[in-house]
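Students often ask why we bother encoding 3D structure as a string. The short answer is that it lets us treat folding as translation between two languages. Here is a chain of 510 residues written in the first language.
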Amino acid sequence: MGGSLWISHGATEASFGGRSFIAVLPLALLLPTLRVSGQFMGKPLDCQKTCVCASNIVSCSRVNLTNVPTTLPQYTAVLDLSFNAITRLRAEWTPVPLDRLHSLHLSHNGLTFLSSEAFANVKQLRCLDLSSNYIRQLDEFIFEPLEHLEVLLLYSNRISQIDRTAFSGLVSLQRLYLSHNQISRFPLELVKERSRLDSLRLLDVSSNRIKALPLNELQALPAWIKNGLYFHNNPLPCSCEVHEVVARWYIKELSSAVDFRGSHTCVLPGHQKEKIAILDLDKVYLNCSEVTAMDKKAFLEQFLVLDCDTRERNVTKSWALPGNVPVPPAHKIADDGSLRIGPLKAEDSGVYTCYATSESLNETVYVTVVVFNSTEVGGLENLKTAYTTLIGCLVSLVLVLFYLYLTPCHYACCPGQRLEKGDPRDSLHSSTVSITHAHLQTGQERPEGGGGFFDNKHGAFLQPKDRLEQNGRLNPIGEEDEEWRGDSRGRRRSDAGSVSSVSSDTPMVV
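And here it is in the second language, the structure alphabet:
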């Protein structure tokens, strides 16, 4: 009986101990989670020891923070957290919306991670400084909530990948700094006509790894965009196309080319990878053509639109004709400030002046117009005449070649034609052979006469007194045939026939 009681008591203790373990186990598993969560959650804001709070400015710079302080006042307008050790910016760094916060400074923190919802509660930001960190990539739509953002500083990071939608939604962005990163592709979508950010007027991609630029697209941009487009200190290969772009920007006195004239360099071909100033390519290397200001060229009776391409966007524009003559009503000034002139006359050539004024800038743009003293149609007609003459010459040449090489040949000298021995009139060669043969025979009959073949040279060339005309042709036979028969040298009739064939058909020179 006692043994059974003891067993029951032991079983009760074991059962109680098991229930206690089961109850304590969740608490034991929760402790590491709470500890990790505590590591990610910052300490409450202390404006006495760690931070400086001046009205709506909170400065916690250089105090070795690893997380953003909690319990930030909702009236905070400027939050400075630079020069700390905050490596990750999570979505819950501010649990409550900070609707008055317009400036957030997180530079020099070693940031490596940005949550896709990190800016969900600070939608009124106008300035965001994320420079001098270790950010490697910008994910899609990461800045989309910041529709009021005007300045975004991302220089001196390790950014090598930028999603094409990373800056979507930044409709108010004016200045974007991406220099001193590892970017290898020029973000053309930020400045291109249909996809660009409307308010963007400064894009800095200098000191990256960009090896190719969309030169044609960049050249077509308006001057107020090119004025704030910085791409110096990139490993661009040297070419005359790059030189032309930079030289034209320099002539137009754009800030991006003038302020960093010596920093616009390119890499020469070769193993040494030597760098040279792009503007020196026309003097030392490549022998690029000198770039001058472009003129507007047109023909008579045409219409021409002159653009007042200024370095600032929102300016008031006015025009003056050559000789500082005010613009007459016949010439129309468009809403964008461009001037439409025409129909053009020869006296419309000259320098047109555009005056651009604003509160911060006064700029003068000169446009030189050259009007050719002919119509474009006349020029086309002259071009057509030249082409017609050229085609006629080519056709004539083809016909001559066809006549020389493709016309059938019936002469004995042509390939494939045989010479008949019985007909001495077939060719010049046959006549010559007959004369030569006859003379040789005559020479053999009169060996005492001396001279041999060369004594009979007169057989091929008749004396003027022996030539008779018959229907405009020489006839050595006619009346003097009798005299030839009585010649003491015994000349035969066949000789005269041979001479006739030679003299009547083709002249022969011995």
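Translate back mentally: The first helix runs from residue 2 to 40. Keep this in mind for the problem set.
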